[in-house]
Amino acid sequence: MKESKKKGIKEIITSKLKKISNIALIVDGLSLEKENILNQLNNIKKAVEEVGKIRTAKLIVKNLPVEDETKKIQKLGFEVVIRASETDVYFILEAMDIIYNPKIEAVAISTGNEEFLQLLNKGREKGKKIIAINPEGSRVDVEMLKNISDITIDFSKSAA
After folding, report:
1. Buried (b) or exposed (e) across 122-131, using 16+ Cβ within 10 A?
2. Is the CATH number 3.40.50.1010 carried by domain 3-159?
3. Is the pTM above the cut of 0.85?
């Protein structure tokens, strides 16, 4: 991530929220570029850590064929959840568990799938701070994300 983007994220965070002690991060692995997944996850994690402390971080994927890559992702602090089928359903179930967890103050969701954006609205309904992360290569409308989240972190190529 470029220094100018980091500075922009810090300014947004400072202006909108104080540091949060319990953030749950869930990443839609199908929305990430496979050849660059470690770098993307690292950037996402660092950006969310600028907001506050991550209590749990999950990566939901269809498959991760390289075992070495899975171990590197786990070293970043992510729980890797591999589901060969019904990945979307499992992502939604995981997100809803996080949204209804009273110990979680903020929900950070990284996805390029517009179908999952209703989860952000549900989190707001339940009083959670919402962090929307637009990953690299995403085509999700950033303005829409800004309107349904407290903080929007945009890594999409259109923001570069």
Report:
1. bbbeeebbbb
2. yes
3. no
CA of residue 130 relative to chain centroid, distance = 10
Buried residues in 70-88 as b, exposed as e (16+ CB within 10 A)? beebeeeebebbebeeebb
Amino acid in position 1: M
Q: Centre a 10 Å sphere on the Cβ of residue 10 and count the other Cβ atoms it contains.
A: 13
End-to-end Cα separation, the chain, in angstroms: 10
Task: Please name the helix (run of DSSP H) or strand (run of DSSP E) that holds residue 143, with its range, or none.
Answer: helix 142-148
Which sign, positive or negative, has the C-alpha torsion 107, 16, 31, 2? negative
Q: How big is the CA angle at 48 (ends 42 and 52), to the nearest 5 degrees?
A: 130
C-alpha to C-alpha distances, 148 to 61, 67, 68, 141, 155, nearest whole angstrom: 25, 36, 37, 11, 17
Unique residue bearing structure tokens 């947004």: 12
48-91 residue pLDDT tens: 999 999 999 999 998 865 778 888 999 999 999 988 788 889 99
**Cβ contacts of 11 within 8 Å, gap of 6 or more:** none
